[in-house]
Amino acid sequence: MFAPALFKMTRSWIGLSAAVLLFGAVVPATGSASSSDNSGTSARQSTAPTSKDDNVKKSNLKKADPTDSTHATTSDAAPNVPAAYRIGVDDQIQISVWREHDLSLSVVVRPDGVITMPLLNDIQVVGMTPKELADSLTEKLKPFVNEPQVTVSVQAIHSRKVYLIGNASRQGVFELNDNKTAMELIAEAGGLSQFAKTNGIYILRVVNGSEVRIPFRYKDAVSGKAQDVLLMPGDKVVVP
User: What is the CATH number of the domain that holds 188?
Assistant: First the structure.
Protein backbone atom coordinates (compact mmCIF):
# COMPACT_ATOMS: atom_id res chain seq x y z
CA MET A 1 0.00 0.00 0.00
CA PHE A 2 2.80 2.36 0.90
CA ALA A 3 5.11 1.05 -1.82
CA PRO A 4 3.24 2.56 -4.81
CA ALA A 5 2.94 5.92 -3.05
CA LEU A 6 6.61 5.92 -2.17
CA PHE A 7 7.44 5.06 -5.77
CA LYS A 8 5.34 7.98 -7.03
CA MET A 9 7.01 10.41 -4.63
CA THR A 10 10.47 9.23 -5.62
CA ARG A 11 9.68 9.64 -9.33
CA SER A 12 8.33 13.15 -8.74
CA TRP A 13 11.47 14.11 -6.81
CA ILE A 14 13.70 12.76 -9.57
CA GLY A 15 11.73 14.69 -12.19
CA LEU A 16 11.97 17.90 -10.18
CA SER A 17 15.74 17.47 -9.74
CA ALA A 18 16.19 16.89 -13.45
CA ALA A 19 14.21 20.04 -14.21
CA VAL A 20 16.37 22.05 -11.81
CA LEU A 21 19.55 20.70 -13.38
CA LEU A 22 18.28 21.44 -16.89
CA PHE A 23 17.32 25.01 -15.97
CA GLY A 24 20.79 25.57 -14.45
CA ALA A 25 22.41 24.42 -17.67
CA VAL A 26 20.23 26.62 -19.89
CA VAL A 27 20.66 29.89 -17.92
CA PRO A 28 24.53 29.96 -18.08
CA ALA A 29 24.38 29.15 -21.77
CA THR A 30 22.07 32.08 -22.39
CA GLY A 31 24.34 34.33 -20.32
CA SER A 32 27.32 33.15 -22.31
CA ALA A 33 25.56 33.91 -25.57
CA SER A 34 24.60 37.36 -24.28
CA SER A 35 28.19 37.95 -23.18
CA SER A 36 29.35 36.87 -26.61
CA ASP A 37 26.97 39.34 -28.25
CA ASN A 38 28.17 42.08 -25.94
CA SER A 39 31.77 41.23 -26.78
CA GLY A 40 30.95 41.42 -30.49
CA THR A 41 29.23 44.78 -29.98
CA SER A 42 32.23 46.06 -28.01
CA ALA A 43 34.56 44.84 -30.71
CA ARG A 44 32.52 46.65 -33.37
CA GLN A 45 32.46 49.78 -31.25
CA SER A 46 36.22 49.63 -30.74
CA THR A 47 36.78 49.48 -34.51
CA ALA A 48 34.59 52.50 -35.19
CA PRO A 49 37.25 55.12 -34.30
CA THR A 50 39.76 53.36 -36.57
CA SER A 51 37.33 53.62 -39.47
CA LYS A 52 36.86 57.31 -38.75
CA ASP A 53 40.63 57.86 -38.70
CA ASP A 54 40.90 56.14 -42.05
CA ASN A 55 38.27 58.47 -43.45
CA VAL A 56 40.16 61.48 -42.10
CA LYS A 57 43.39 60.22 -43.67
CA LYS A 58 41.65 59.70 -47.01
CA SER A 59 40.18 63.18 -46.78
CA ASN A 60 43.65 64.64 -46.10
CA LEU A 61 45.11 62.75 -49.01
CA LYS A 62 42.42 64.14 -51.26
CA LYS A 63 43.15 67.68 -50.12
CA ALA A 64 46.86 67.22 -50.86
CA ASP A 65 46.17 65.98 -54.40
CA PRO A 66 49.03 67.45 -56.47
CA THR A 67 46.83 67.54 -59.56
CA ASP A 68 44.51 70.06 -57.92
CA SER A 69 44.48 73.21 -60.02
CA THR A 70 44.99 75.33 -56.92
CA HIS A 71 48.49 73.88 -56.61
CA ALA A 72 49.39 74.45 -60.25
CA THR A 73 52.48 76.52 -60.90
CA THR A 74 54.17 77.80 -63.97
CA SER A 75 57.71 77.10 -64.97
CA ASP A 76 58.02 80.02 -67.37
CA ALA A 77 60.77 82.47 -66.32
CA ALA A 78 61.86 85.66 -68.04
CA PRO A 79 65.42 86.93 -67.87
CA ASN A 80 66.29 89.92 -65.69
CA VAL A 81 65.60 92.63 -68.26
CA PRO A 82 65.91 96.30 -67.23
CA ALA A 83 62.69 98.30 -67.42
CA ALA A 84 64.38 100.69 -69.87
CA TYR A 85 65.29 97.87 -72.29
CA ARG A 86 64.06 98.53 -75.82
CA ILE A 87 62.71 95.65 -77.85
CA GLY A 88 64.68 94.69 -80.93
CA VAL A 89 64.51 92.38 -83.93
CA ASP A 90 64.46 88.64 -83.09
CA ASP A 91 63.58 89.28 -79.43
CA GLN A 92 60.94 86.95 -78.02
CA ILE A 93 58.23 88.70 -76.02
CA GLN A 94 55.26 87.48 -73.99
CA ILE A 95 52.01 89.45 -74.26
CA SER A 96 49.37 88.67 -71.63
CA VAL A 97 45.85 90.09 -71.70
CA TRP A 98 43.98 89.39 -68.47
CA ARG A 99 41.07 86.97 -68.95
CA GLU A 100 41.62 86.98 -72.72
CA HIS A 101 43.39 83.72 -73.49
CA ASP A 102 43.07 84.11 -77.27
CA LEU A 103 44.85 87.46 -77.15
CA SER A 104 47.71 86.25 -74.95
CA LEU A 105 50.67 84.92 -76.87
CA SER A 106 54.44 84.58 -77.16
CA VAL A 107 55.90 86.05 -80.34
CA VAL A 108 59.28 86.70 -81.96
CA VAL A 109 59.84 90.14 -83.47
CA ARG A 110 60.19 89.83 -87.23
CA PRO A 111 63.12 91.34 -89.20
CA ASP A 112 60.86 94.25 -90.16
CA GLY A 113 60.34 95.06 -86.46
CA VAL A 114 56.71 93.98 -86.50
CA ILE A 115 54.59 91.41 -84.64
CA THR A 116 51.09 90.17 -85.49
CA MET A 117 48.23 89.95 -82.97
CA PRO A 118 44.60 88.82 -83.27
CA LEU A 119 42.22 91.76 -83.88
CA LEU A 120 45.12 94.22 -84.21
CA ASN A 121 47.06 92.64 -87.09
CA ASP A 122 50.60 94.05 -87.62
CA ILE A 123 52.12 96.21 -84.88
CA GLN A 124 55.50 97.97 -84.94
CA VAL A 125 57.32 97.19 -81.69
CA VAL A 126 61.06 97.73 -82.27
CA GLY A 127 62.46 100.55 -80.14
CA MET A 128 59.68 100.37 -77.50
CA THR A 129 60.12 99.38 -73.88
CA PRO A 130 57.87 96.58 -72.56
CA LYS A 131 55.77 99.14 -70.64
CA GLU A 132 55.39 101.40 -73.68
CA LEU A 133 54.23 98.45 -75.74
CA ALA A 134 51.80 97.34 -73.01
CA ASP A 135 50.29 100.85 -72.84
CA SER A 136 49.98 101.00 -76.62
CA LEU A 137 48.26 97.61 -76.81
CA THR A 138 45.89 98.59 -74.01
CA GLU A 139 44.68 101.57 -76.04
CA LYS A 140 44.42 99.55 -79.26
CA LEU A 141 42.35 96.81 -77.59
CA LYS A 142 39.77 99.11 -75.96
CA PRO A 143 37.36 98.93 -78.94
CA PHE A 144 37.36 95.12 -78.64
CA VAL A 145 37.87 94.35 -74.94
CA ASN A 146 36.16 95.85 -71.90
CA GLU A 147 38.86 97.51 -69.76
CA PRO A 148 41.84 95.53 -71.14
CA GLN A 149 44.75 94.87 -68.83
CA VAL A 150 47.94 94.10 -70.75
CA THR A 151 51.40 93.10 -69.55
CA VAL A 152 54.46 92.63 -71.75
CA SER A 153 57.66 90.84 -70.76
CA VAL A 154 60.83 89.94 -72.65
CA GLN A 155 61.40 86.18 -72.64
CA ALA A 156 64.60 86.07 -74.68
CA ILE A 157 66.94 88.72 -76.04
CA HIS A 158 68.34 88.06 -79.50
CA SER A 159 68.52 91.55 -80.95
CA ARG A 160 71.67 92.66 -79.10
CA LYS A 161 74.42 91.27 -81.31
CA VAL A 162 78.05 91.98 -82.07
CA TYR A 163 80.22 90.66 -84.87
CA LEU A 164 83.78 89.31 -84.82
CA ILE A 165 85.56 89.43 -88.17
CA GLY A 166 89.07 88.47 -89.28
CA ASN A 167 91.90 86.53 -87.66
CA ALA A 168 90.06 85.01 -84.71
CA SER A 169 89.69 81.37 -83.76
CA ARG A 170 85.94 81.59 -84.36
CA GLN A 171 84.41 84.37 -86.42
CA GLY A 172 80.71 85.06 -86.38
CA VAL A 173 77.76 86.67 -84.64
CA PHE A 174 77.66 86.79 -80.85
CA GLU A 175 74.76 87.76 -78.59
CA LEU A 176 75.25 90.72 -76.30
CA ASN A 177 72.84 89.96 -73.46
CA ASP A 178 74.94 91.73 -70.85
CA ASN A 179 77.83 94.13 -70.67
CA LYS A 180 80.68 92.70 -72.69
CA THR A 181 84.08 94.11 -73.67
CA ALA A 182 86.16 93.50 -76.77
CA MET A 183 88.61 91.40 -74.76
CA GLU A 184 85.76 89.25 -73.39
CA LEU A 185 84.36 88.77 -76.89
CA ILE A 186 87.73 87.55 -78.18
CA ALA A 187 88.02 85.17 -75.24
CA GLU A 188 84.53 83.82 -75.93
CA ALA A 189 85.57 83.21 -79.53
CA GLY A 190 88.57 81.15 -78.44
CA GLY A 191 91.24 83.82 -78.84
CA LEU A 192 93.09 85.16 -81.85
CA SER A 193 94.89 83.29 -84.59
CA GLN A 194 98.68 83.30 -84.73
CA PHE A 195 98.64 85.74 -87.67
CA ALA A 196 96.48 88.39 -85.94
CA LYS A 197 97.88 91.90 -85.58
CA THR A 198 97.06 92.23 -81.91
CA ASN A 199 97.56 96.00 -81.67
CA GLY A 200 95.84 96.71 -85.01
CA ILE A 201 92.32 95.60 -83.99
CA TYR A 202 89.52 98.15 -84.40
CA ILE A 203 85.79 98.37 -83.79
CA LEU A 204 83.29 99.72 -86.32
CA ARG A 205 80.33 101.42 -84.62
CA VAL A 206 77.39 103.42 -85.98
CA VAL A 207 77.04 106.74 -84.17
CA ASN A 208 74.31 109.18 -85.23
CA GLY A 209 73.92 107.38 -88.52
CA SER A 210 77.63 107.43 -89.35
CA GLU A 211 80.14 104.61 -88.95
CA VAL A 212 83.14 105.43 -86.81
CA ARG A 213 86.35 103.48 -86.22
CA ILE A 214 87.48 102.84 -82.64
CA PRO A 215 91.04 101.45 -82.22
CA PHE A 216 91.59 98.58 -79.78
CA ARG A 217 95.14 97.62 -78.86
CA TYR A 218 94.52 94.07 -77.67
CA LYS A 219 98.12 93.23 -76.68
CA ASP A 220 98.44 96.42 -74.63
CA ALA A 221 95.04 95.84 -72.99
CA VAL A 222 96.10 92.36 -71.91
CA SER A 223 99.24 93.76 -70.29
CA GLY A 224 97.28 96.61 -68.69
CA LYS A 225 98.83 99.36 -70.80
CA ALA A 226 95.59 100.16 -72.65
CA GLN A 227 91.93 100.19 -71.78
CA ASP A 228 89.43 97.57 -72.83
CA VAL A 229 86.46 98.72 -74.93
CA LEU A 230 82.86 98.18 -73.84
CA LEU A 231 80.89 96.86 -76.80
CA MET A 232 77.52 98.17 -77.99
CA PRO A 233 74.82 96.33 -79.98
CA GLY A 234 75.76 96.21 -83.65
CA ASP A 235 79.51 96.66 -83.10
CA LYS A 236 81.86 94.94 -85.56
CA VAL A 237 85.21 93.90 -84.11
CA VAL A 238 87.72 93.60 -86.95
CA VAL A 239 90.96 91.65 -86.41
CA PRO A 240 93.46 92.32 -89.29
Answer: 3.10.560.10
Angle at 151 between CA 146 and CA 153, to 5 degrees: 160
Contact 148, 99 (CB under 8 A): no
Q: Quick one: CA dihedral 92, 96, 102, 103, positive or negative? A: negative
- Which range marks the domain in which residue 121 is found? 92-156
Residue 28 has pLDDT above 50, yes or no: no
- At 28, the amino acid letter reads P
Quote the number of domains for the chain.
2
Final residue of a structural domain among 126, 156, 186: 156
Residue in 211, 216, 221 with CA at minimum distance from that of residue 237: 216
| Residues 132, 232: Cα–Cα separation, whole Å | 23
Contact 177, 232 (CB under 8 A): no
Of the residues 129, 156, 183, the one at which a domain ends = 156
Distance separating alpha carbons of residues 146 and 157, to the nearest angstrom: 32
pLDDT band of 10, cuts 50, 70, 90: low
